[in-house]
Each structure stands twice: as structure tokens, then as C-alpha cells.
Amino acid sequence: MNIHQLFLGALIIGWSLCTYAQPGRPNILWIVSEDNSPFLGCYGDTFATTPRLDKLASEGVRYKRVFSTAPVCAPSRSTLITGVFPISMGTEHMRSQYPIPDMIRLFPEYLREAGYYTTNNSKTDYNLSPLEGRMDAAWNESSNKATYKNRKPGQPFFAVFNTAISHESSIHKRLDTLMHDPEKAPIPPYHPHTPEMKRDWAQYYDRITQMDTWVGGILDELEREGLAENTIVFYYSDHGGVLGRSKRFLYESGLRVPLIIRVPKKYAHLAPGSPGTWQERIVSFVDFAPTLLNLAGVQIPEYMQGHPFLGKQSDEQPEYAFSFRGRMDERFDLSRSVRDAKYRYTCNFMPHKIYGQYIEYLWRAPSMPSWEKAYREGTLDAAQAAFWEPKPFEELYDTDADPDNVRNLAADPNYQQVLERMRGALTNWMIASKDVGFIPEPMMADISDTMPLYDFARSNRYPLDRVLETATMAASKDTRSLASLTERLQDSNPVVRYWAATGCRILEGAAAPARSRLLHVLADPEVSVRIAAAEALYYLDDRDRAIDVLTQAVSDDNRMARVQALNVLQTLGSDALPALETAHRLIAANPKGNEYDIRAAQGFVKTMEEFL
């Protein structure tokens, strides 16, 4: 090698180091566990055994008020990877895979363009489409072997490591022996003390301990590689959980998550506080993407809806964190929630649906059938029985005095100012976010065939103010709204008609004056509107006609219409038996199917077998 080649080689290496080793460009490591609330010693849980995370907390900062936008994985991960609320994109329903606009990118793509080596090991579950090209742009590596070790010399990295050790499935099968004693497990007041419940809680704490050990392994590897002093470490969970009434539900138990961030001395100017301290700031998952870009010195796109909470351009603390609940697996529901520093307010737009709708995957935990059995036997107190009964329209909880959210203050006159403030904040968020979740999902599926729901919400075809006004009237159970609901059964917009029909269903017999209008709606061009009208008519004693319309919908070409109809039929007892043959045909045509219409059909058949 001559002197010119040596000089050229040195020049290339120098250029590479200048490109990748820019000052102020920390490595960033995300360690993510699944389905767990702050069941950690460092968060004050005395039953937990979590020495490695406790040590990490002593070296970093802990956040008290961090909330997932959804109490379930795919929609919450949709938020994390884009920095946009799923209610804006149409990605709120569990594993729905509706398209989003090209302008919304997976945020690691911006880091990669800025010179970062990006790796994901290995869960995606981003709940959006199309994904393949976006993945190629976002990640240098995404697999169960992905590692920051393959980067170029001096190149900063953003690496994600995810574990399913604490996932809901971890309690489906019994461990032979337990570290934590079931008789000493802390059972929340909304759960009965059945043997199965105590055992599930104890086993889950064992899984948390196993997860803690795994976290320690990731941190040890970082030390061995000599990278700890150059790497900002995040640890958090993808939502709360995991036993019934936590994951999937808009309570502290489903939404509040741990967040520990360790910032090395080299980047102390980016830290929010000294090691071992607590942070009171309200943080939402929608804040994570802009925060990562801010730490890396990357401009935050205007479409992102969160607030960066670390870095040189951090925003002031927001007053609220917002969350949502849409379809969970094969069961429809719709609720919205807002949390400030003290209170949680939730509005349930489908209060006629019980919390405890049967979800096949949720019922795999032994504690769930035991809880349901105890309810049927009448052995539960009011807090434990509430899960199996219709929801209130509004819920308000003082999370300091009532962290388990069992004392609803919405009707307490002493809290009316708080209620109105929180209600107003939630309404403003839904409007500002252009919430597409009020579109019934069969319509969503059809719209998505031609355009992203994000774009549809910004067209003149979605009158959100009128839709939201109608949905609020419907859910309020106020008979004074019946005249308006009856009029809106003939509205030009099908989403308005859907919510008007749903309102008649919620009012049950009190909706009798709307009966003739509802009969006309049975011929509506939108199947989701027909289903809602049929359900309303069932409760006005027009049962045969209602069952006929619902049975026809089980054979509809639209999968989500099939799910919607089966959801209704399963609640109608033996009157729904005429639909049994149609459900059997659906299952027979898809013997190995795992789609949500098949799960809904299987659940319906299981319920109908009780009447044969």
C-alpha cells in the first residue's frame, strides 16, 4: 500500500467518524416489557421482586404519571412508532391494519436519515398498513437477532429490545412452583379472592421477576460493550396489565405504566433530574417519538401530536394525557379517557355493553372464568360485580384517594366543576384530533379501500361535530334527546344515522316513539346502520324482524359487519337461536380461521349451546 492509498484510507475513516460521532448524539436504548403496570419495588410495590430495575431507578429518574394511549398493545404501539394518536389515523381498533398516509412515517426513519443505526428486537405490531416499505426505511435490522453491535465504527444507535416474559399469555399455563405466595398476593378491591385469582396474581409477580432478570441481562451487555456512558436508557411497559379489568380497560390499571430513564453523566444536560429522583410531569405515549427526535437533534415533523419531554427543545408540561378504547379483539366498544395530575375522567359511548364482554383470549386466564362464576353465583360485592354490568355514561375518579378507580364521582355534586372541566378537555381533544373512531368499523373497512381514514376525517364527508353531538346524546341515556335522535335516523350522513339508532338501543323501551322510523332504517344502505336499528327494535319487542336482519348480517361480505352482528346476537339469549346455523356455516367455511369474525362466531355458538 503506497502513501497515497494510506492517506485516502485515513481520509475515509476521518469522514466516517465525523459523520457518526457528532457531539451531542447519544446512543438511545429502549427496553420494553409487555402488559405490566408499575409492579416494581422502586415504585413502592412491596410484593414485587425487581432488584435490577430498582437499581436502574437509583441510577436514573422515575416518572410517576406516564400513560399509554391505549390499554392494549397494537394501538399503543401504533402511537409509539408514529407520534400520532390512533384515533386520528384510524388505527385504534385491535389489529385492524388500515392504511395511513405516506407522510406519516415510522419515527426511526428520521433517526436513520440523521445517521443513527436503528435496530428492533423484535416486536412490531404497529397496527397500520402498508408496513413492509416503512419497515425497510425505519430499521437497519428488525428481527429476534437484531443488535446495535453491527453498526459502523463510531455510529450512534437507537436500539429496541422487547420481551414477552410478562405478557398476558404468561399466566395461561400454570408454573410448577411459585416464588410468590398466592395467599399473600395483593388483590385489588375489584377482584374476588378466588383461588384462581390469587394464583394468577402470584404467578404474574413471578413473571415480573423473570422480566427483571432479562432487563438486567440487556444492561449487563451494554456495560460489557463499554457503551453505558454513551447511552440513554429507557425502560417502560407497552401498557398496563395484566389480569381482568387492567389490560384493555381505561383505568389506571390498564393505562399507567412505569418509565425509568437513565442518562449518563456525559449527557447530564439532557436529564430531567438527578439520579434517584421522581418526575411529576404527565407523559403520554404520543410524546415518545418527538422526544427521541429531540434527543437526537432531529427536527420534529409538524404532524406529530405529542410533546417532547427530554432534550434541548422540550415543551412545557401538558395538563392532560388522553387515551381511548375501541374494538378489543372480537368485541366492539368505544370509550375515551383523560387524565390530569389527580383525576381520571372517562366517557363511555356504548354504556349498554358490559365491561366483561367475553373475549376468547382474555378468558384463557384461569382467573377470568372464576370471576364470572362468582358473579353468577351472587357472591361478589358491588365493586367486584360492576365489571359484569352495564357501564355508566361517565366515570370520574380521584386517583390519589382511589388508585383502583372503584368510587365513581361523576354524580357527586361536589365534583361537578372537575367533571365539566375534564369533559370539556376530552371533547376538545376529540375534535382537534379529528377522531375517526366514531365511524362504525364496517364503514371504516369500506372507506379504507379507497383512502386513508386520516384523509377521510379531513374531508367534507365526516361532520365530526354533528357525529360527536349525536353520539353524546345517544350515550347519555337522556330521554329528552329522543326527538333529536329520531330525526337524525334520517340524516344524510350514515355515521350520524348509526349513532341515532344506537341511542334508540340504549334507551330500550323508552325509544318506542321512534319505532316507525327504525323500521325504515332496516333498509338503510349501510349494514352497520341496519344492525344498530335491528338491535334497537329487538328491545321494542320487534324480535323476529330484528333477529332476521342480524342473521343476514352474519353472512355479509364485510367481515366487521359480521363481527358487529354476532356481538349483538350473543347478548340476546335463546331468542338468537335462529342465527345458530348461519354461525356454524361461517365457522365451517373457515375451520382453521383465527379472524375476529370466526372468534365472534365461536363465542356465539358457545353461548347458544347453553340453550340447547
UniProtKB/TrEMBL annotation:
It comes from the Bacteria. InterPro entries: Alkaline_phosphatase_core_sf, ARM-like, ARM-type_fold, PBS_lyase_HEAT, Sulfatase, Sulfatase_CS, Sulfatase_N. PANTHER family: ARYLSULFATASE FAMILY MEMBER (PTHR42693), ENDO-4-O-SULFATASE (PTHR42693:SF53). Residues 26-298 form the Sulfatase N-terminal domain. PROSITE patterns: SULFATASE_1. SMART domains: EZ_HEAT. Transmembrane segments: none annotated. Pfam families: HEAT_2, Sulfatase. This is Arylsulfatase A. Belongs to the sulfatase family. The lineage of its organism: Bacteria, Pseudomonadati, Bacteroidota, Sphingobacteriia, Sphingobacteriales. GO terms for molecular function: arylsulfatase activity; metal ion binding. Keywords: Calcium, Hydrolase, Metal-binding.
